[in-house]
Amino acid sequence: MRKLWILLFALAFAGAAHAQYRWVDKDGKTRYGDTPPPGVKATALGAPASGAAPAPAPVAASKDAKDAKKGPMTAAEREADYRKRQEDAKKDAEKSAKSEKAAADKAENCRIAKEYQATLETGRVARTNAAGERYYMEEGQIAQELVKSRQNISQYCGG
Q1: What 3 state SS string does the chain have?
Q2: What is the pTM of this model?
């Protein structure tokens, strides 16, 4: 029975033997691990034993000094950062697609406005009234439509 207790005791502290950092958690308990959680003051333990992985390199200086004090990112932080980058890329792609669609719509409106102006400039434009009868626009109506058409061209074609 005594050997079992010694084995359990040895296994309980085996994790601390390979740990590279020591910190005190919010409950006041001392914890050991390879990467400390963000926002705690962690103490680096001695050099790793021969054959063990080297200690992680210090965090490079970042835009925010607070980020530099955090230490290495945990797996959850890396995952959150990855998801944020994916979401940002998706938003950028949607924004780009939206602006391309707006540019295509504007070019189509420009083409239609120029065609309508060319039709008005022929001087003989037919319309259909509410009763379904065909009639020709008078010169005054054509002049008003030409003014509107030029405004549409300046709006959609930029000039």
Answers
A1: CHHHHHHHHHHHHHHHHHCCEEEECCCCCEEEECCCCCCCCCEECCCCCCCCCCCCCCCCCCCCHHHHHHCCCCHHHHHHHHHHHHHHHHHHHHHHHHHHHHHHHHHHHHHHHHHHHHHHHCCCCEEECCCCCEEECCHHHHHHHHHHHHHHHHHHHCC
A2: 0.45
